[in-house]
Amino acid sequence: MFNLLWLQSAGCGGCSMSLLNAESPDLISTFKAANINLLWHPSLSEETGSEVTELLENILADELKLDALCIEGAVPRGPEGTGRFHMLGGTNMPMMAWVQKLAQKAKYTVAIGSCAAYGGISAAGDNITDAAGLQFEGEVPGGILGAEYRSASGFNTVNISGCPVHPNWVTETLISLALGEHTEEALDQFGRPRMYADHLVHHGCSRNEFYEYKASAETPGDLGCMMENMGCLGTQAHADCNTRPWNGEGSCTKGGYACINCTAPEFEEPMHSFMQTPKVAGIPVGLPTDMPKAWFVALASLSKAATPERLRKNATSETLIYPPTVHKRKS
């Protein structure tokens, strides 16, 4: 039996809500099939108060083994490093202290969502609660566990980032852990599982034909590519949202929303509107990460010169105006 404990700190609970949308199979069926025993989850479990406290104390006393410690939400360190901005009810101990103690017992420690991984939305702005991720503070290693932290089995924190996470990113990672298949090579430089982080949101985007010809949307609701004017970061964002649709068919870009790169550290503070593409001399700053700028500019100029009228008109429309031409076979 693989024992899993799930705690929530400073966050919106959106990752848990997303996880409940796991399907084919559903979450509980997935856990049963993988022999995962959910010790406690604040939204799914019946135990409360002293029952939960006793469970946590049993783990610390080595009377109950902890295979996976999952933390959702950033962890406040304030005020002045005490962590008392978030106290675990009935324990007179900050959540920060609980996480640090439990992380020493856990075979694997898993950050669920960008807040738990890097600070995320909970650490944005002035960050008056001094919230941080488990082993990162933005792009900088550290967090509440420290850059040198290793779990009981010798691993860094697994950062399943996203805002919120795709349910399958969580279930597939937990299954991998439960089967004992996890390796450090399975994570990228920010601790993200490579099974989704080695992809780009751009891959499989339904607007890719518009992107290829640089036929761009100009206002919200337009059908065209949103990179040039609408702030889309799909060519830089590490995730498989468009090749692994949410609930079988959805994604941000498919729904008409620009990708804001929510799996990346510090995505929450882009220094401009999420729906705005910053430019220098008319050239977008956020170009594809693996393409030289000179090449992109040259190809963009050629692409725009060759843009079919169908794409040019459809790009700035909310509905399809011109369908592709039907080619008849020559007799």
In short:
With 331 residues, the protein is an alpha/beta fold. 24% of the residues lie in helices and 12% in strands.
Give an overview of the whole structure.
By secondary structure, the chain is an alpha/beta fold. It folds into two domains: 2-197, Rossmann fold (3-Layer(aba) Sandwich); 199-317, Irregular (Cytochrome-c3 Hydrogenase, Chain A, domain 2), CATH 4.10.480.10. It contains ten helices and 13 strands. The strands form five sheets. Strands 2-1-3-7-11 form a five-stranded parallel sheet, with helices on both faces. It is elongated. 43% of the residues are buried.
Topology overview:
Blueprint: E1 2-8, H1 14-19, H2 27-33, E2 36-40, H3 50-60, E3 68-72, E4 75-76, E5 87-88, E6 93-94, H4 95-103, E7 108-112, H5 114-118, E8 131-132, E9 136-137, E10 140-141, E11 158-160, H6 167-178, H7 194-197, H8 208-212, E12 279-280, E13 283-284, H9 293-305, H10 309-315
Parallel strand pairs: 1-2, 1-3, 3-7, 7-11
Antiparallel strand pairs: 4-8, 5-6, 9-10, 12-13
